[in-house]
User: What shape does this take?
Amino acid sequence: MTSTRMTDENWGERRAATRRRRQRTVHIALVAAAIAFGVFAPRFVPPGPGAAQTKLILALGYMVVIAFGAGMLWRLSDELEQRRTRNAFAATGVVTFFAGVAVPLAVPVLGIAYPLMTVWVLGLAAWGIAYLVQWLRG
Assistant: This one.
């Protein structure tokens, strides 16, 4: 007869610890990639007319690394973490949508030097605030 008794009582804790360790490894790899990009990328840019193309290729490569790392972190996240992230991205979309209309209209009045960067920063701030509020609420 087959026993239905669990032989390992703390398998869930071990799986959670393994997930946290893998997430930490991905975070460390992404920070290391950012530092390496900041240190070594300027050395690859040649002087002269090829600089713009090289910068574009390096930036696209770095974005691919970030997207790959984000995908790995998404796979390692549980349902609650994914829900918080989706809600935060929804808040980013709403804020960016309205800021994309309001900021260009405010440029002549407020003298905003970089309107596109302002919209991007507002969207990024909305993501951080929405995520933090959800995390604090539990």
Notes: The CA atoms of residues 30 and 68 lie 10 Å apart.
